[in-house]
Amino acid sequence: MSEIYPVKISSRDDKIIPLLVEAAIRKKGITSIKAIYVDSRIKGFMFVEGDNKDDIKLVLSGIRGVKLDPLGYGKKVELKALSDQEIENLFRKKEEIVLNINVGDIVEIIRGPFKGEKAKVISKDDQKKTYTVLPLEAPVAIPITIQEKSIKLIKTSE
Question: What b/e string do you get for 126-145 counting C-beta neighbours within 10 Å, with b at 16 or more?
Answer without folding.
Answer: eeeebbebebeeeeeeeebe
